[in-house]
Amino acid sequence: MDLVRETPNHFSLPRRISRLSELAYNLWWVWNPGAQRLFTHIDRTLWEKVYHNPVAFLRRVERPSLNAATNDRYFLELYDQVMRDFDRYMSAEDTWYRRNYPSKQNQLIAYFSFEFGLHESLPVYAGGLGVLSGDHLKEASDMGLPLVGMGFYYTQGYFSQRITEDGWQETRNLELKFDDLPVTLLTRPDGTPLMVSVTLAGRKVFARVLQVQVGRVPLYLLDTDVDANNPADRMLTARLYSSDHEVRISQEMLLGIGGVRALHELGYQPTVWHMNEGHSAFLTVQRMREMVMAGMGFEEAMEQVRKTNVFTTHTPVPAGNDEFALWLIDKYLSHVWEDLKIDRERFVDLGRNMQEWGETFSMPVLALHLSGKANAVSELHGKVSRTMWHKLWPDRKVEDVPIGHITNGVHASTWMARRLQILFDRYLGADWRENIDDPDMWAMIENIPDAELWAVRRHLKNKLVSYAIERARSQWVGGGFHPVQVVAGGVLLEPYSLTLGFARRFATYKRANLIMRDLDRFIRIVTNETRPVQVIFAGKAHPADEPGKMLIQQVYRAVKDSRSGGRLVFLEDYDMNLARLLVQGVDVWVNTPRRPNEASGTSGMKAAMNGTLNFSVLDGWWREGYNGNNGWAIGSDVDYSDPEQQDAADALSLYETLENEIIPLYYNNRSSDGLPHGWIERIKESIRTLVPQFSTRRMLKEYMSQAYLPAMDASESLLQTAANPVKTKEG
């Protein structure tokens, strides 16, 4: 179909720099610092005011500033270089995928996720799952993988957070301004928006299809806020993770069924379908439905779909998985099993999950039943998942349950500080990004002088501290904040103290309060006159998670305890911008989940990429990454049956390691040049061992070999069989 990408803006730019608009609508600029510098060079103040959003920037920048840029030789040289790099990137033929899989050029991977975290200026993400999805798309673009993404355009994004004087989380949902976002509307040749429809409980719901360009990868987002829908249905894609089960099943049908229809309307025929978590598992049903309605038998359709589906599970506890009461399945999906030409019981069997209180329809069960390849996101999570879902394969040994693992990774160019990238350009060679997963290359980290690496680390901490202080100052000047909130916001931070960071979603299993289990001891540690410690907290709790909000309140009360001397800080409204500053700027990244509930975790990987040392429970990725010299472990590699016993043991380990190892290494035995060479040695060991192992480059290579390639081969085999059907006797 000949579709038109309609941008809501037609910027009036000087001809010499007119391609800034093209750059603004491709998120390639997110992981290319040179492109960002173009906008800061024109007007740094405006760039900060629009929260690093090029589209909003170009809508507001004044003409004199643009004219000045066209007369600035430095700017024009930078502009020309950035556009050459952009054109070279977008038109590249010699990609990793093309070099390694020349016979697979006609394949296409469809990647479905409930959220995508690409940049703070496009807040259609809630947390780690979305950021991982965004990193997946960016790396797929870098590697030249034939991939398209499918998700939702949340018109109200994720909530913004404010912490009251007594530590209670308040939330606000603000309507996103479409004209300010790097999102384009897809229209048909007659000018009408491209729409798909899904029948929900007997009514037809429409969704328009929007596009975000992520380098070479297109991401399509569904939006139900259209005139054809009733007011309630227009709100279906307003917010992430509704706690209303009817809204949730409607969203998941829209993503799975509507997403498949949208890709077909766009002219795509994916050969691999990747479900990132179970939210999109209804795509399996829609794919079978189309085959059956075209004349194929149900069992054959199920087998074909299974061979070309990939499923990634992220949830290590049964309660965290999406499942629906059977009455909801009856209400919303009865027409689907009719189209599949099966009865209700056969359909429910696809997702049936036996609970102590009765039966439910489980989205992960549906995905597991209908995927040829399924994976967890760390080695330990793989073991947990095989045990958790053993009941689906009762005749097999637990270790033979068909759920493997591909440990998560992070996109280096997005998360690594620019100053550090420049340092690596100098000492590792200009092609280090292409070889980021090569352990031998990272041995050259030893060539970097300690003084230069430490100078970058000090700069990054100064940047974080300055940001916190300026934000606290602006809140105070803006009014509406109590002095206690200003102190809690970091106004007393300073750049010379050992600084720890703890930032993530506030859920009880993540144990944000573990570090203050013995509050008196903790306060003595942070207020030591000769070896002080600062701890910066950040994170949101889901609006419906009362225990999570109470956990924030408990932490905040310790933060505002005057005995801490302002050395405990809570930075509100955690997002990707604050996450970058924290993983780059703190000295130590703390993670305290209750084993084995952390499926993987990725924030520590981002910290490691910036020379920030990890101090974590041996769960998820850190159990694989820790080698005894590249950070520190909290507790031991064992699981406790008694949570209270585990908490006590982990807290004791945390305090003893902090007091006896981390603090002395940071402060003691500095040489005559004032450098903590022992600390820097550990930084180098962390970078050397962790960066190649936990990059999305390694992750995507494993997805290709373990999941995508088998699905591609199966797809080719199915196409060949369809082209050459086996002849059978009549009758």
TrEMBL record:
Its cofactor is pyridoxal 5'-phosphate. The keyword Transferase applies. GO terms for molecular function: glycogen phosphorylase activity; pyridoxal phosphate binding. GO terms for biological process: carbohydrate metabolic process. Gene3D superfamilies: Glycogen Phosphorylase B (3.40.50.2000). Its EC number is 2.4.1.1. InterPro entries: Agluc_phsphrylas, Glyco_trans_35, Glycogen/Maltodextrin_Phosph, Glycogen_phosphorylase_DUF3417, Pyridoxal_P_attach_site. Keywords: Allosteric enzyme, Carbohydrate metabolism, Glycosyltransferase, Pyridoxal phosphate, Transferase. This is glycogen phosphorylase.
